[in-house]
Amino acid sequence: MLGSVVVAMVAAIVIMVAAGFFAWLSFLAYGDGGPAARAFGQALVELPAALVFAGLAALAVAVLPRAAIAIAWALYAIGVGIGLLGQLLKLPKAVIRSSPFDHVPAVPFDDWGPTLILIGVDVVLAAAAVVLIRRRDLST
Questions:
Q1: SS3 64
Q2: Are 36 and 24 in contact (CB under 8 A)?
Q3: Which sequence ranges are marked TM in the entry (predicted)?
Q4: Fewer CB atoms inside 10 A, N or C side of the chain?
């Protein structure tokens, strides 16, 4: 299970780094190098929020393995939907704040608090998933 959690998190990291790199490259190709570094930085600062969903998916596998795929995708869809459309739909502030993407700061930023909290949540979710999967009675 630990290997699966690591693979999911490494995949998210690779995807976000690639997205940031190509955003940076696009700005450079356009001839506007000013926002290029900010675009790359913004992709990286989104990473802890994305990793929350990898941790939730791992936790779903540990607790409800048969429904884990549906649970993981549903949580991701809800989180992204709330994060992107919450203000447009005039959802209550408490609902909007429930999305990890609402806690991602815009680059450049000085307050590392929300990012560090998201990283802590990532670590706790991954560790909980590993502990719970090891406690399950699995026959091989």
A1: coil
A2: yes
A3: 7-27, 47-64, 71-92, 112-133
A4: C
- Position 32 scores a pLDDT of 77
Is the separation of the CB atoms in 12 and 54 below 8 Å? yes
Does the pTM surpass 0.90? The reply is no
d(CA 117, CA 14): 21
DSSP single-letter state for residue 106: P
Query: What's the Cα-to-Cα distance from 130 to each of 86, 104, 124, 138, rounded to whole Å?
Result: 32, 26, 10, 14
d(CA 22, CA 36): 10
Q: Would you say 80 and 104 are in contact if contact means Cβ atoms under 8 Å apart?
A: no
- pLDDT tens-place string over residues 57-113: 999 998 998 999 999 999 999 999 998 899 999 999 999 999 998 888 888 888 888
Handedness of CA 117, 120, 125, 126 (dihedral sign): positive
Q: What is the pLDDT of residues 106-137, one digit of tens each?
A: 888 888 888 999 999 999 998 999 899 888 76
